[in-house]
Design goal:
It is built from 8 helices and 6 strands. The protein is of the alpha/beta class. It has 2 domains: 137 residues, HAD superfamily/HAD-like (Rossmann fold, 3-Layer(aba) Sandwich), CATH 3.40.50.1000; 64 residues, DNA polymerase, domain 1 (Orthogonal Bundle), CATH 1.10.150. Strands 3-2-1-4-5-6 form a 6-stranded parallel β-sheet, sandwiched between helices. Helix 8 links the parallel strand 4 and strand 5.
């Protein structure tokens, strides 16, 4: 493995605890048709995947009378209403500051939409510490396919082997490894029971990352 030059962050569940917001927003959309998604069901089937992929599954699973695109539009609008008073996950600000001070390149590679990513990093006050954004809406396949991580590396001008991926979800870990990258998993309270055997390291906090990047 080459020396790490760039760190690629997943966003939801890693940088900020937005998973409950996404679940509430999907349930708002599903509730119009008398359907409900449990926290366990959301964790098992949908965390780490793009909205459109999850919505396609929900439309079939719940026999909804709308398209996946329509479901996502309602969900996306509700997320925008719910995104208030966000707090960074422990260790995030310190990690980003250390990365910038030591000349690492930084990108977000997320299943969320670019509009949502931009709003969240502005609200968290970290936008100036992030060099590039890559969203699943820009690629053909979302996680667990490697596309969004490969796009992030391309935008940063580094090779995949020079990248460290930080992920909280097993599907994201798989995406990072398929991209040929080093991957650290930092499971969230929702994903802690998942299979992280593909990860190079499994950590308990973002605070642990910096000292381990090139070990």
């Amino acid at each position: 493995m080459n020396k790490i030059k760039a760190v690629l962050f997943d966003m939801d569940g890693l940088m900020v605890d937005t998973e409950p917001i996404h679940l509430r927003a999907f349930n708002y959309a599903l509730g119009k048709y008398g359907k409900h998604l449990t926290e366990e069901g959301n964790t098992r089937r949908y965390i780490g995947t793009p909205d459109i992929d999850g919505a396609k599954d929900m439309v079939l699973r719940f026999s909804l009378p709308i398209s996946a695109q329509e479901l996502v539009m309602v969900k996306k609008a509700r997320v925008k209403e719910l995104l208030t008073s966000l707090e960074p996950e422990p260790g995030l600000i310190e990690l980003l500051a250390n990365l910038k001070q030591n000349d690492y390149k930084v990108a977000i590679a997320s299943s969320s939409y670019l509009e949502t990513i931009r709003k969240i990093i502005q609200d968290l006050g970290v936008a100036k510490m992030i060099d590039k954004l890559a969203s699943a809406e820009e690629v053909k396949q979302g996680k667990p396919a490697p596309d969004v991580y490969l796009l992030a590396a391309e935008k940063l001008g580094v090779s995949p082997s020079e990248c460290l991926v930080l992920e909280d979800a097993p599907k994201g870990v798989q995406a990072g490894k398929l991209a040929g990258m080093k991957v650290f998993a930092i499971p969230s309270q929702y994903t802690k029971d998942g299979d992280f055997s593909l990860a190079d390291k499994v950590l308990s906090s973002l605070s642990e990352v910096f000292d381990l990047i090139n070990l």
